[in-house]
Specification:
The chain has 138 residues and is α+β, with helices and mostly antiparallel strands. Helices cover 38% and strands 22% of the residues. It is built from five helices and seven strands; from the N terminus they run ααββαααβββββ. The protein has a five-stranded antiparallel beta sheet with strand order 5-4-3-6-7. Strands 1-2 form a two-stranded antiparallel sheet. Strand 3 (94-97) and strand 4 form a beta hairpin. Residues 41-50 have low confidence and may be disordered.
Length: 138
């Protein structure tokens, strides 16, 4: 056999052996930053089951987004903070308050108090409608 072929074959066997060892030891090669980026990716669309009619229908992007963070309001608050004002107002789980998007509903922001325990939000926008005492007049 040609020396180049033998050398290439040895390298391939070594690489496969290394992958097998890494797999057996369950070594995680992802950095913490990579894992954070993966967890920050929002689910844009998804399927919802219509149990009554036994069919599946495509969920709206904003509904699938909210469903994917249901029960994790702290994480949702951080993910909402990355949305634009327009996208924030399209969801049913985020509100636009104090010039940023945060987790919330028609009742207001989920976390609306500051370190001093006082309410930070005088008004907020939920699905493009202003709520609160000092809503600007158009």
């Amino acid at each position: 056999m040609d020396e180049k072929i033998k050398y290439t074959l040895k390298i391939c066997i070594f690489v496969l052996f290394a992958f097998a060892i890494i797999n057996m030891l369950s070594v995680n090669l992802n950095t913490e930053e990579t894992q954070q980026k993966i967890s920050d990716i929002a689910l844009i669309e998804g399927l919802q089951l219509d149990i009554q009619h036994g069919t599946q229908k495509l969920a709206t992007g904003s509904q699938a987004f909210c469903d994917s963070y249901k029960g994790s309001s702290g994480i949702l608050n951080g993910v909402c903070g990355k949305l634009t004002e327009k996208n924030c107002n399209e969801t049913s789980c985020c509100v636009f308050a104090n010039k940023k998007c945060v987790a919330g509903s028609a009742s207001g922001p989920t976390y609306n108090t500051g370190e001093n325990g006082k309410t930070n939000t005088m008004h907020y926008y939920f699905q493009n409608q202003c709520y609160g005492d000092d809503c600007p007049t158009v």
